[in-house]
Amino acid sequence: MGSDAAMTQSYPPTSPASPAPPLEDENILAEILLRLPPHPTSLYRASRVCKRWRQLILDPEFLRGLRAFHRTPPVLGFFHNSPCPRRFVCAEGSPGRILHATAALRRDGEDGMWWFVECRHGRSLLRGRDWADLLVWDPMTAERRGISVPYRVRAGTFDLNAAVLCPKTVRGDCHYSPFDVVVVCTRQARAFACVYSSATGSCILEFQLGNQRLALVELPSETFSVYKRNIRVGRSEGGGLGLTAVKNFSMHLWVREVDHLGTEKWVLGREIDLYKLLALPLTQTRVGSMPVWISGIAEDGNAVFLRTMVGIFVVWPEIKKFKMLTNSVLIKTVYPYASFYVPEV
Q1: I need a surface site. Which of 141, 197, 299, 319 has the fewest CB within 10 A?
Q2: DSSP string covering 132-163, please?
Q3: How far is residue 278 CA from its own chain's centroid?
Q4: Number of Cα atoms under 13 Å in the Cβ half of residue 111
């Protein structure tokens, strides 16, 4: 009897193991960190919490997920070629990596400096004074690639311009992807283009990027009579070709649309009253005598940089938000730079 009782004696059931706290679970932690605001200082502060968080944030797989989740990189600020102490002006936070890298951006030669041409997909394109040399520079990774522009491209040209492009399959910044540099010039009322491919390391004297080709796009008839060259080409809010123009204190956003007959034409999409939007800063001086000029547009068209007599403002048209970035009146043309900020190790 006693032995039977011992055999049937019950014990309290073993409790299942408690789940790990959310911040101890690698997958959950990664999902939380992905949802931090794409602000320059967000990941930097998170990476300073502990070594484990820093290793996770610097993992290439996490960085790919970050870009895929947020898609559009934030505008960190702009570069410029004006005679100011700092050639980079921050729009959000204080990304020290860019400031330090820009201070050391020098070139061999008589002029001793590179001149910014444009910024796109997380890279910056710079040129020598005579366009004989180009430099593709990644402020985040410090990667540099020098390119020689063939003399037969430069000889006898009336005007030169260039752009750095990434594969169509890549959206946002593409720090570790191949890139192409397109150089466009005009000569005797004709336009020419050549392409440098980082994959092959050579120039191709034709414009053949997939199915892309040179095409003439007529501007709205109001371009010169109304806006007097105060107009910039960029990407519209819908992702297509767009124009941003300013007349007095009114910003006009034009979009390229196709009508029911299949004809492309320019349509005025939105109009923003800059006098009301920038009322507080602009009333500090004589408003009636203050011109507003477009200094630059972010590559995704989501930020417009305006030059006034009191300094430079950045305006986010979609949310009608603005911010004064600098009171310098020496800066005229700016080159907005957008990228996901990668913390320094």
Answers
A1: 319
A2: SEEEEE-TTT--EEEEEPPHHHHTT-SEEEEE
A3: 24
A4: 11
231-235 and 241-247 beta bridge pairing: antiparallel
Residue whose pair of structure tokens reads 């050391």 in the numeric block: 104
Q: How far apart are CA 101 and CA 34, in angstroms?
A: 26
User: Residue 137: what pLDDT?
Assistant: 92
Polymer length of the chain: 345
Q: Over the stretch 8-39, which tens digit does the pLDDT of each residue have?
A: 555 556 555 566 566 667 778 888 888 887 77
Q: How confident is the model at residue 166 (pLDDT cuts 50, 70, 90)?
A: confident
Separation in Å, CA 173 to CA 8, 55, 93, 142, 340: 68, 21, 19, 14, 7
**pTM for this model (two decimals):** 0.79
Residue 136 has a CB neighbour count (10 Å cut-off) of 20
Q: Nearest 5°: CA angle at 298, between 286 and 38? A: 110
3-state secondary structure of 244: strand
Confidence band of 118 (pLDDT split at 50, 70, 90): very high
DSSP bridge pairs for 191: 186
Task: State which amino acid sits at residue 80.
Answer: H
